[in-house]
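As promised in the previous annual report, we have extended the structural survey to additional targets. Below is the entry for MHYT domain-containing protein.
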Amino acid sequence: MQGTVDGFSYGLVTPLVAFFMACLGGALGLRCTTRSLLVTQSWRPGWLALGSAAIGSGIWTMHFIAMMGFRVQGTPIHYDKLTTFASLGVAIVMVGVGIFIVGYRGATGTALFTGGTVTGLGVASMHYLGMAGMRLHGTLQYNTFTVGVSVVIAMAAATTALWAAVQVRGFIWSVGASLVMGLAVTGMHYTGMAALSVHAHGSGGTPAGDTPAELLAPLMIGPLCFLLLAGVVVVFDPMMMTGRPDRRDAVEAASRAGRTVRPLRRAG
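The corresponding structure token record, generated without further manual editing, is:
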């Protein structure tokens, strides 16, 4: 029989909190991407890696906060621990590939398209792998066209967010890019959920795997703590302790962004 699916069992609470987490992860990750263009070559991989982990953790946390409000009438929902962990790893790795491409190649057409596409596919892969980790008395079925729309949304918005991040034009641009990223992730998530239908088997018993309270709540503590620490690192930028960015790297970064670096003035 067709199971009744409810993705808003807690009303707007889970969508709004999920959107906030996506924006937070996006803000930290994209800010790290921006900073990577203004530091010496030795610092760049660290900033890009931190940005990748921040965005990956943010979108993963967003997804499962949103899934807290997901219900299927007639069957409890459990989660497979290995698949759930794998979805987090896929998110960080694929987002990392996209960010490193843009971080080292700049906002050129090919690099931006490739990086945005890989990042968007990372968001979509995390979502559908996370969904594959659900265990319930039923079969998940997807509308192919709507799934395709959700993937296009993720790729297009991720490309736009990365373009804004590499403009190196200050904090406001990073905030705007993070809002775009947040909309990309939440829009992709709920579009993907709109593509879902569940054919319930109606069998009794408890599904395999762990309940959301047993698995998701403890698991989200780690990414949440990481996002907090990443925020501290971004606020207390290591550049403030190591001095100004290397002049050659700053000129190179500004050149990729289409800007001119003015000579530095001495204080006094």
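The two ends are 78 Å apart (CA to CA). The first strand starts at residue 2 and ends at 3. These points will be discussed at the next consortium meeting with the crystallography subgroup.
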